[in-house]
Amino acid sequence: MTYNLQPLLRSACELYPSSIGNGIARSWSEDPNESRLSFSDWTFLESPEDQWAAATFSSGSRFSTTQTVHCNVVEGHLLVNRHSRGKLPLEIRQDPAIRELFGDHHLLAYPSHYPGMTHRLEACWYNQEIHFGVRQGQVIVRTISRNGLLEFIPKHIFSNSESFDLPAELMDNCVHWLNLDTKCIEVRRRPSIWVKRPRDWQITLQPRIAYRGNVRLVNPQSSIFSEIAGIFRYFVQPEWLTVFQPNSEASRLTVEIRQMDLSFYVNGRGILQCRQLGAEIDTNQDAGTWYGLRSKIVLKDIPVFSRSIIVPLAQTKHRRLGIHVDVRMEETGEYGRYRINSILGRLSCAPEPRLLYTLAHCHALTSFCLPDRLTSRTGSEEALAILRSGASKPWTRLGAGALGILIQLQTLTPQREYYPAKNKRLQRVNWDKNLTASIQHDSYDSLVCSIIAESQRLAKFSHESLDVVGSAEPSHLRFRGERQREIYERPTIDYGHKTRLPAVYASRDRKVTFQGENVYSVSQMLLQGYSSFPKISPLLSYLESYRVIGGFRNDGGSVTNARPLISQIEEPIAERWGELVNFCRLEKNDTAVLFCLALLAFHPKPSMDVVRSLAAFHYIDYLKDLEVPDFPSFVNLSSSQVPPLPDLERFLESAYRSFQPTYVCGNGKLRKRSQTDAAKHQELCEEEAHEFAACIQKQWPIAADDLLAEGLEFICIDMAAAIEAIKPGSAEGQT
Asked: Does 43 reside within a domain?
């Protein structure tokens, strides 16, 4: 259809030649009104290429050159300098600068009309023409907009391994553009890297001044910056410091640390004062403790003049300096503040686990053989006191930061192992060469393990997932090392509140055994009477666990008569249960009962609750008066067992009413009829017995006299005799 419209399309283009250029300009620009492309007159090529219209165009910039464009009015193809739209070369697409600016966007480009540029993005990007090129092996990106001609500057231009030209605030998450028209570097912060904003930093090349509004940046290579960086040395990296000077006379030099949300300014006394903490940097950096910790800054509050310390909350690095240790903390963007309490002689902080463990860790790493002036204790003594305090005990599961500090504390213990490992005759101790012996203390291991174990226990009540940290129990060598160290150092545990009770000498002939304790327990219970009986588990649960239980037909006289002691100890109680119960009930001599039960308790694996139950049969009157069943034994006793129907029906046979014939037996026919009626009577008795037995099962367990037989009418069964038949004492119930 489009091919048939070719004459009409050509005549329309010849009649309105500017329409082709306007369409191309609209497709290449986000805002058609801002397009600066100017096209020459369009001419159609000769046959057979008469579908193509050609023209030249220019962007109107002083840097641009004229390019030729071909447009196929029938198929819609577009060629620039006889090249179609395509992907950027691989070396340009994979360059870090392209990924930093465009991310993973799919970029299509035409040949560029700017000198030194090879490709141009097919459409405008934020109302800017984007051109790409390669210069001395480096990818070049330039933009053309109403702000001028800008060239992208990679970050590595501003720093190397030894120095830097811009602070981290002007580097991190920022993009730098060189305006070739104004000779000024524009620092644009993400996400607005394509749009210039009034609050963006700008750096003029001649003279070299960085400014933002009415604020001028202090050159990181200047002596003023070096002096300020020396104050914050080891607390933060110099790159993190942004030092600037407002142009107004009333404003003062300001130092910002954006990573820590801290800002300092020079106060009237010429000292740096923090706006957030309301304190100034003390000219006296001696805190009376933490000697050797380089990463601390001592502050003095305004106006009360109390002192405090701020340190980064991060991993520590340490190295040996003779008899001292140089300790530094890595910069992570977080810090902790500790108040210097000269009255109590200690450092205090908020009761937060990470702060407390960092406090203990710093004390431990800066420990020396002489006590600190502030605490009057060594760093190890102070660290151990903090770890033993109630504030250090976790009340919920510890986070990853607090656990990391505890693990660092745990590494301050010397590594001890047996040598040889199997024989356990000697020990090998490995000391950290970068730490002094006064720093490495064995007590850290046990304290850290107890804190981590408590945290793992509290983890059951937490919904957050966190990797489980193993905390092995300290070894015997560890405890022995702690006790050995206490000989030469001041004790770190306060034993004053513990009262030492007189120790009782345990002679070798009175060695307490498990069997002896059981015998002593039963003897004390029998001698002291019923009031000393402990709580006993239900006896039924034990009896149901026995397969065979001895009956009560024996009066118990043979329990202790002429039987070997080993038999009285080791024979199962279940098989002798009936005679043991009768013996305890009927025996009047307490000594005989005590001797019998003591032998039962001397069994290697006695059932003490059963033995105590037998003692109860000897002391409790209502147990003595119980009527025991007269059976030789019991098998598979179960309190919830229901008697089967056949057994109940068999018990009820004695309650059948006898058949009374109503015919004279002289006649043969009448005799035969009488026999038939007797058989029917027997069947009816069995049916009624089955019905009565089912009624008993439904109400089981129940006493025979409490049976309910409402709605049941029996003709062939005597109800009174039936109830007597199923009672335990009846002859039928005993079979």
From this structure: yes
Q: Which residues contact 194 (CB under 8 A, 6 or more apart)?
A: 125, 126, 128, 143, 188
Q: Give the helix/strand (H/E) hosting 347.
A: strand 346-348
Whether 603 is covered by a domain: the verdict is: yes
pLDDT of residue 343: 92
Rounded Cα distance, 87 and 129, in Å: 16
If asked whether residues 22 and 98 sit together in one domain, one would say: no
Residue 577: band (very low, low, confident or very high) from pLDDT cuts 50, 70, 90? confident
- Tell me how far apart the 2 most distant CA atoms of the chain are, in Å: 154
Number of other CB atoms surrounding residue 469 within 10 Å:
15
Alpha carbons 255 and 215: distance in angstroms, whole number: 12
631 and 649 together in one domain: no
- From the number of C-beta atoms within 10 Å of its C-beta (0-12, 13-18, 19+), residue 228 rates as buried
Give the Cα separation of 327 and 294 in Å (integer): 6
pLDDT value at residue 670: 47
* Residue 491 is assigned to a structural domain of this protein: no
At residue 657, what is the residue type?
R
pLDDT one-digit tens code per residue, 206-228: 888 999 988 999 999 999 999 99
- Do 711 and 623 fall within a single domain? no
Does residue 574 belong to any structural domain of this protein?
Answer: yes
Q: Which of 399, 316, 322 is nearest to 364 (CA)?
A: 316
Give, to the nearest 10 degrees, the angle between helix 400-410 and helix 443-458.
Answer: 160
Give mean pLDDT, residues 349-367: 94
Place of tokens 């006993």: 536
b/e burial code for range 554-566 (CB count within 10 A of at least 16 → b)? bebeebbeeeeee
CA atoms within 13 A on the CB side of 500: 4
Tokens of 275: 């706006």
Q: How far apart, in whole angstroms, are the C-alpha atoms of residue 254 and residue 216?
A: 11
* Distance of alpha carbon 561 from alpha carbon 564, whole angstroms: 9
The pLDDT tens digits for 119-152 are 888 777 887 888 899 988 889 999 888 778 899 9
Q: Indicate the number of domains in the chain.
A: 6
Residue-wise pLDDT tens digits, 144-200: 887 788 999 998 889 888 889 999 999 999 999 999 888 899 999 988 888 888 889
Residue range(s) defining the domain that contains residue 571: 512-635
Pairwise pLDDT comparison (640 vs 564), residue with the higher score = 564
* Residues in Cβ contact with 499 at an 8 Å cutoff, skipping those fewer than 6 apart: none
Determine contact, residues 310/297, Cβ cutoff 8 Å. yes
Q: Which two tokens stand for residue 640?
A: 């919830």
Q: Residues 610-639: what's their mean pLDDT?
A: 78
Q: What is the average per-residue pLDDT within 414-437?
A: 88
Cα–Cα distance between 388 and 438 in angstroms, integer?
19
Section 63-70 average pLDDT = 69
